[in-house]
Design brief:
Elements (H helix, E strand, L loop, with lengths): L1 H33 L5 H33 L1 H21 L3 H4 L2 H31 L5 H6 L3 H20 L2 H6 L4 H17 L6 H5 L7 H8 L1 H31 L5 H29 L1 H25 L2 H28 L6 H18 L1 H10 L6 H20 L17
Length: 423
């Protein structure tokens, strides 16, 4: 289990590095480079629009790779998704800007971002399922939470590289070539990930299956449509929290409040460090007290914290901004540490890869794709304190709270004996 979990964690970190480095670049430089003919606000919105394309592609990736995972095994998904995400990320780093090739630049940027999202949509299902299905039932939430540390590591790596480059280069150097370096580094990281995953064993649950689903998506939509919608709605607030902190707040604070880019990245990264370190702790709590109670507690905390978070952000004071981000990240991880065990337990093995991944990534469309765009537009109409953004995030938290309340508990019933929820 330690070796398997380590390989899953490392691969997840690498794929999320690819995804997050784009989000940071969108907040800092992609607007002027790829959308220079429109106003700065419209350029930021357009850059965040291409950021959102990745989230739209993720459910499609979960359908494609979920089919492979349910028909041919979880292990092939890990390799194919990593190859696709890594190659498209490196290509973004090589893409000429608008000044070089004109309108083809933003068009190609959208295509590459779509391919990034397609690969990441398959990554989560493969990595989490392989870990969860190998883990003993009484410690499944703990072991399955370890791949969930991967997004935090990927984010820290992406933003750490961006922080070093943005503080060591001049503005002109960073805009000309410095922002491309993290994208090029994705190629090396992808090779490391492929090496780590080359010798992983296939999931025992998959190997035991005698009757595999012919068209997993059709079975999921027929028998589990209600469950897919509930999990998507439940997870929306987690995505909204993460991307309001990691992407929108970075753009808002640097452009509207005049906060130094390095200071802002450091505040966000410090909160993510704490979140990543506490992920296994919340996984242990999920094994002890159940998956649903932790999700409800985290969602309730998010409902109460969104207004204080934007108020602390509006101060522009590093310590206060960090505290605002930290409270949001703790609410987030209370939910997402146990999701890696919770979602697979809700589905029968024959459609688990598709069902869990589709629900997980649809939540990203609702909470992740729209949040930077909506928050940027709302903040533009607000004063120094963007209360409208707090109201928007609180509304998503209430939606997610209602969805979690309608989902069943799955602990401690073994996965193979659990009764799936039907539509």
């Amino acid at each position: 289990m330690p070796r398997l979990a380590a390989a899953a964690l490392a691969g997840t970190a690498i794929e999320f590095y690819d995804f997050f480095v784009y989000g940071t670049a969108a907040a800092l430089v992609l607007g002027p480079l790829f959308f220079p003919t429109i106003s700065p606000l419209a350029g930021t919105l357009a850059a965040f629009g291409t950021f959102g394309v990745g989230f739209v592609a993720r459910p499609l990736g979960s359908v494609l790779f979920g089919h492979i995972g349910d028909r041919h095994g979880r292990r092939p998904v890990l390799v194919l998704s990593l190859l696709l995400t890594g190659a498209s990320t490196v290509a973004v780093g090589c893409l000429p800007d608008y000044g070089t090739i004109g309108a083809a630049a933003p068009l190609l940027l959208v295509v590459l971002r779509f391919l990034q999202g397609l690969g990441l949509g398959g990554e989560w299902g493969g990595a989490v399922l392989l870990t969860a299905e190998h883990a003993p039932a009484e410690r499944r939430a703990l072991w399955a939470s370890l791949p969930q540390v991967g997004p935090a590591l990927g984010f820290l790596l992406a933003n750490g590289v961006m922080l070093v480059l943005s503080t060591s280069l001049t503005e002109a150097q960073f805009a000309q070539w410095g922002w491309r370096v993290p994208f090029w580094a994705a190629g090396v990281l992808a090779l490391v990930g492929l090496w780590l995953r080359s010798s992983l064993a296939e999931s025992p649950s998959f190997l035991k299956m005698d009757d595999r689903a012919r068209v997993p998506l059709a079975e999921v939509m027929r028998d589990h449509w209600r469950l897919v919608l509930l999990t998507a709605g439940a997870l929306a607030i987690g995505y909204a929290i993460f991307y309001s902190v990691s992407t929108w707040s970075l753009s808002y604070a640097t452009e509207r409040l005049g906060v130094d880019r390095g200071v802002m990245l450091a505040c966000i990264m410090a909160a993510v460090v704490v979140k990543g370190a506490l992920t296994p702790v919340f996984g242990l709590l999920g094994d002890r007290y159940g998956r649903r109670p932790l999700c409800l507690a985290g969602c309730a905390a998010a409902t109460l914290w969104m207004f204080p978070m934007v108020a602390l952000l509006a101060t522009g004071a590093p310590l206060l901004m960090f505290l605002g981000f930290l409270g949001a990240m703790l609410a987030f991880i209370a939910m997402f540490a146990v999701i890696a065990a919770y979602l697979p337990e809700l589905y029968e093995p024959r459609v688990r890869c598709t069902g869990a991944a589709v629900g997980y990534n649809l939540g990203g469309v609702v909470g992740g794709a729209l949040t930077p765009i909506v928050a940027t537009a709302l903040a533009e109409q607000s004063g120094r304190t963007p209360w409208a953004v707090g109201a928007y995030l609180t509304a998503i938290a209430l939606l997610s709270l209602g969805c979690f309340a309608l989902l069943p508990e799955t602990r401690p019933v073994p996965v193979t004996a659990a009764e799936p929820v039907s539509g």
